[in-house]
Amino acid sequence: MVHIVWLTILFALFPLLNASPAMAKTSKQWRAGLYGFSADDSLSSSRLVGVAGLVRVRHLFSETLEARFHGGAAIETGSSSSLFTDEFEPKSRFLLTEALLHWQVWQPFSLEAGAIDQAHHGSPLLLESHTFPAAMAALDLPLENWIVHL
Fold first, then answer.
1. pLDDT tens-digit readout, 32-49
2. Three-state secondary structure along the chain?
3. Residue 97 Cα distances to 29, 58, 77, 112, angstroms
4. Which of 109, 20, 11 is nearest to 63 (CA)?
5. Residue 108: is the preceding peptide bond cis (ω within 30°)?
6. 74-107: per-residue pLDDT in tens?
7. What pLDDT score does 13 carry?
8. For residues 69 and 57, is the Cβ–Cβ distance under 8 A?
9. Strands 109-116 and 132-140, bridge-based pairing
10. What is the pTM of this model?
11. Contact (CB, 8 A) for 67 and 58
12. Which residues, in sequence order, are bridge partners of residue 29?
């Protein structure tokens, strides 16, 4: 959780450190949704409703350096009673898919550091498909279907 807070603060401060305001470009997208869930059986009973919001921000500092953030929050309320599990217990949480800096050193070599989303890389580095703090070097060869990640 501490890493998420530091990455968010770092991402918020980077526009202030931008050396070339004419080159800086920011794109933003957001989504929000309302959802509900009900489960009833002999061992448990749950009803919940929630709202979730996500934002995706991409900020170009220069032709070779960019920052990306994709995250948000989910707030749930409701009731749950169960003998064995809290699987359907209402939970409020922060959601973080990606918060990183991407530096295209030269074509085809690039570096990324921060909270990296491995889902879109198709990388077998994870046991689970969760975001985690890391640094990654990539070599995108001009050959079809060849990408090397370190």
1. 999 998 888 888 888 999
2. CHHHHHHHHHHHHHHHHCCCCCCCEEEEEEEEEEEEEEEECCCEEEEEEEEEEEEEEEEECCCCEEEEEEEEEEEEEEEEEECCCCCCCCCCEEEEEEEEEEEEEECCEEEEEEEECCHHHCCCCCCCCCCEEEEEEEEECCCCCCEEEC
3. 14, 13, 23, 14
4. 20
5. yes
6. 999 998 888 777 777 888 999 888 899 999 988 8
7. 46
8. yes
9. antiparallel
10. 0.69
11. yes
12. 56
Look-up of token digits 């889902």: 119
Residue whose token pair is 């800096």:
101
Six-digit token pair at 75? 């707030």
Angle at 73 between CA 72 and CA 76, to 5 degrees: 160
Token output for 39: 């489960």
Instruction: With beta carbons less than 8 A apart as the criterion, state whether 87 and 50 touch.
Output: no
- Structure-token match 């090397």, residue found: 148
